[in-house]
Specification:
alpha/beta, Rossmann fold, 2 domains, 4-stranded parallel sheet, 52% helix
Length: 192
Amino acid sequence: MKIGYARVSSHNQDLKLQIEALTNAGCEKIYREKISGKNNEREQLQLMLLELRPHDLVVVCKIDRIARSLKGLIDIVEELDTKHVDLMSLDHKDKVDTTSPMGKAFFQIAGVFAELERGMINARTKAGIAQAKSAGVKFGRPNGSQNSKTPDKEEKILIFLQAGKSYDWITKELAISKTRIARISKNLTHSV
């Protein structure tokens, strides 16, 4: 059975094109989610992995939809392998199709080079930041300053805290620092 997996990183992005491509590729069931791919602990991904049967084929539009890091991808492929399930990307640039020995080998080699490229980009970015700092460039807001829109967000922060939302969730939702959320939380507990 062909099983599709579609993912976008945020709720304001659309899955329509991926779902259409997976349907056209013959996927009988499509797992979909709107969440970051930074780790493999995603509800629909885990559900799909749990429900897979031997000889199923997992199909994605692009390989970065199922995993963003080489380690994450290798973990998924190893789990698929133990279940006797293959993985195929519809994007011909990815060249991922583990249904053949050559496809598996190419996948592993391509993954190594992709990880190397990411590592080199990270190293260049860190070197550029270090060089800029040594030249006196300052990054971020000055210590002690706060986002001018924070006071407008305090009521929402209080509501989210009372609803049990995590600092990570609030930070992403309101574009505010965890330190500021902690201060507001502290004020909330002192005023109660």
